[in-house]
Amino acid sequence: MRPPITTYLFDLDGCIADTLPLWLISFQQTFKTFDISISNEEIIRIGFQRIHETDFHIDKDRFVEELYVNYEAHFINAPLHSGALNLLNILKESDHKVALITSSQRKVVDLYLSKNKIDMLFDCTFAWEDTKKNKPHPEPLLKALNTLNSHPENAVMIGDSDVDIIAAQSAGVMSVWYHPPANNLFYKNDAFALHNPDKTIQNFSELISILK
């Protein structure tokens, strides 16, 4: 019998927040700054979190800096995914432990959470700068569990990306792939079969029922 889930770890981009289209726009704007022509399909094929691993013969630090300038202008207006706010409120009211683990930079994360008045719904948040290693490495998840005094067997990681699933498995926590229809453009439906997430959901209302 599975131990009870007491701790919920959430990704932000593409999960709590509907930001993937905005990342695509921001990448295109940044590539244009560097006079690089690249299709949306190629950016998606490479993957947002892996695009810096490719060799475009550019100053990658300057690219990231420019990317976040562009992204910050869009990110603040990103809508929450349907059902996200309701789920977070339910978890808060039922005294579950809730953490946000994101690879976005702290300044945009804090701004977004405050603007949408959801900062108080998380017991702790971990952004890009808060750990030495980032997802898919398990360090951010393990640090969150330590902060919350939680055990891996009582935790679940919910995210839209394969790096979330890999990080969850490496940390020994339950993995849930959040794949709403809006994300179909960015991920193939069978993309996560290779990583075998414990559960797959298309909307947040499913999460409560499958974890009861």
Outline the structure in words.
Helix 1 (20-33) crosses helix 3. The protein has 8 helices and 6 strands. The two termini are 12 Å apart. It is globular and about 55 Å long. The model has no long low-confidence stretch (mean pLDDT 90). It has 2 domains: 7-18 and 79-210, Rossmann fold (3-Layer(aba) Sandwich); 20-75. Strands 3-2-1-4-5-6 form a 6-stranded parallel beta sheet, with helices on both faces. The chain has 212 residues and is an alpha/beta fold.
The secondary-structure element order is EHHHHEHEHEHEEH
What is the domain tally? Answer: 2
What characteristic shape results from the CA principal axes? Answer: globular
| Rounded radius of gyration (Å) | 17 Å
Any idea what the CATH superfamily of the largest domain is called? HAD superfamily/HAD-like
Condensed summary:
The chain is built from 8 helices and 6 strands, in the order βααααβαβαβαββα.
Which descriptors apply to this entry?
212 residues; alpha/beta; Rossmann fold; 2 domains; 6-stranded parallel beta sheet; 39% helix
Question: How would the blueprint of this fold be written?
Answer:
Layout lengths: L6 E4 L9 H14 L6 H7 L13 H16 L8 H10 L3 E5 L4 H10 L8 E3 L12 H9 L7 E5 L2 H10 L2 E5 L20 E3 L3 H6 L2
Parallel strand pairs: 1-2, 1-4, 2-3, 4-5, 5-6
Helix pairs in contact: 1-3
